[in-house]
Amino acid sequence: MLWFEPLPWGRWALVILVAAVAVYIELGPDPNTDHPFATDDIAPGDIIDTSNTEMRALPAGLLESTELGAVARRPIGRGEPVLVSDVGDAESVVPPGWWVVGVTLPDGAQAGDRVRMVLLDSGGEVEGLVAHAGSDDPFAAADGGVAVPAESSAEVALAAADGRLAVLISTG
Question: Are residues 103 and 146 in the same domain?
Answer without folding.
Answer: yes
